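As a next step, the fold was encoded as tokens, giving this record:
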Amino acid sequence: MTARDWLAATFSLDDHDTDFRTEALAGLTTFLTMSYIVVVNPAILAATEDKPGIAVPGYTVSEVQQMLAVVTILASAAAILVMAFYANRPFALAPGLGLNAFFAYTVVGVMGVPWQTALAAIVTEGVLFIVLTAVGAREYVVKLFPQPVKFAIGSALGLFLAIIGLEGMGVVVSHPDTIVTLGNIAQNPVALLAVLGLFATLALHTRDVRGAIILGVLATTAVGWAVASLGVAPQLAPSVPDPQYDITPLAGAFVEGFQHVEAFGFALVVFTFFFIDFFETAGTLTGVSQVGGFLDEDGNLPEMEKPLMADAVGTTVGGMLGTSTVTAYIESATGVEAGGRTGLTALVVGLLFLLALAFVPLAAAVPLYASHIALVVVAIIMLGNVSEVDWNDPTHAVPAGLTIIVMPFTYSIAYGIAAGIVSYPLMKAAAGEYEDVRVGQWVLAAAFVVYFFVRTSGVLATL
């Protein structure tokens, strides 16, 4: 039996109507669109003179960032390999954006919790997830998601991807009066090349060119490097720092963190990490599954406990190694759109992460302005999912609409889902359709109300 035959049998490629080449291309596509986390996660988590985070005595900021880059790769690979071989799904995982900022700025910065204790909270959350997933509790909660919310998640994720992508391309920038506005594209070589690359990629997609997304990303990268090498626009070429592979100051630091636990504050940190990660992962899996056609007629992902277990294992391993919560990535949609249907796609992503260990500084070789083109393309595709919602029924339109609006505008998958979950039973009650709401959905809505109060009332800042 050849290696390809073994892979085809292991991942049931024939049953999923796919092949090795398609899965490999999908894995490469996903990796390229999310590889930025290897650089961004360390930049957020590492403490500097201007911001809180992880600081290791005797090591420079650059060295700590390189440690975190290695840890990011290892934690991501661990979770992705579980996803590949146990869940056989094309989803990729890595330390979550937003969760890492909460770790550094709120937990370590505002609350003054030692970063070692914050890691202990991550490990605690991960173990809770493993237990809850093993007994089927996480899957049960996900099934409580109202149908209109499930159908809206894909489009909401599309808008969320669009904002991330356009910002990374330099097309959308912040503005003090209008919050966001159009960047000075004609004056910015990065934004100009990104826009040209975007339209080239969309043209390839329109012509049904196989691998259009990856071709567009790679072509844009190649043009950027070529122009930069001529000295015309050096900012098009990313800087590549020297690697730092020693992670011993981070690995196992969570054990020390348990020695400095203040019960209430620690429980609140675990609770917040738990809530955000739980619903961001569930929302991402549902949204990406909708793109891939993985959902059943009720809008549920069959055997969802398996990809949820990959998330739980990744979070636990990540906390033990020294990084914030690992979660499923919406960038997985790029690989699914490229044809990824099985765990072989995830395996390719995981192997590419491990391969990046040998070239840690080159992990960001594909610049953000190029990789984020894929996010915008996929965002446009995902908007089509909005047609699944019954917009003629207000009890469906309101939860779906709030999910789609709140998610991108709060820059949070969890908040968007929460808005939909809270509004669904309220709208059903207003319409007198009490029998359509399960008890668990009322409980879930109440839990989110409590969460929003804790998150927005300033309780965290007073601890």
User: Anything to note?
Assistant: The longest strand covers residues 172-175. The chain has one domain: 18-237+247-462. Residues 263-292 form the longest helix (30 residues). Residues 18-237+247-462 form one domain.
